[in-house]
Amino acid sequence: MKRNILIMILLIGFITVYPQKYISKTGHIWFYGSTPMEVIEAHNHQSASVFDATTGDVQFSLLNNSFEFKNALMQEHFNENYMESVKFPKSTFKGKVSNIGTVDLKKDGVYKVEVTGDLVIHGVTKNKTVPGSIEVKNGIPTAKATFKVTPEEFNIQIPDLVKEKVAKEIEITIDIPYQLYK
User: Fold this and answer.
1) Which of 34, 101, 124, 145 is the least buried, fewest Cβ under 10 Å from its Cβ?
2) What backbone torsions phi and psi does residue 94 show, to the nearest 5 degrees?
3) Residue 60 domain-assigned (yes or no)
4) What domain range is 107 assigned to?
């Protein structure tokens, strides 16, 4: 009997300290920018992410050429002229949810969070702090955030000929549904 109680205590202790890691290979990241002359929007449903709910560590990675545009010519220009996707194939983020203690994975709901980390686009690393949310349903989190960047801060050159067609700020939206890593 004492042995069973000891095993039960050890098992409960193991479960409570075992890291809660989640992964996603189908995250949806898209960007949007508009000017009076042009709307630019592209979606990527192939972003990969890892989230450690114990520490708050989070990472995203995506292939730049996986963004899909409605206009094939826009997609070609994005990859060849602006993102230089052959030279800079991936964009990444590595950071931490600073207030992870406010997220209760045992209780469904939407939890406001703040994430700080390094965003790498076009080979340029910028430290960003982004407000977002973690929505919990049945113990499984979905990360969501929206923030803005400028092409200039990531050394993305916009030719004078098309400057009026490209928004000065680009809105990036993240929607990452996770699953428990086993």
Assistant:
1) 101
2) -135, 115
3) yes
4) 20-180
The CATH number given to whatever domain includes residue 72 is 2.40.128.110
Residues 148 and 126 sit within 8 Å (Cβ to Cβ): no
CA distance 131 to 129: 7
Q: What is the pLDDT of residues 129-167, one digit of tens each?
A: 999 999 999 999 999 999 999 999 999 998 888 888 888
pTM > 0.70: yes or no? yes
Tens-digit pLDDT profile for residues 3-28: 444 344 444 444 444 569 999 999 99
Helices (H) and strands (E) in the chain, counts: 2, 10
Count of structural domains, the chain? 1
CA distances to 26, 63, 167 from 113, rounded to whole Å, are 22, 26, 28
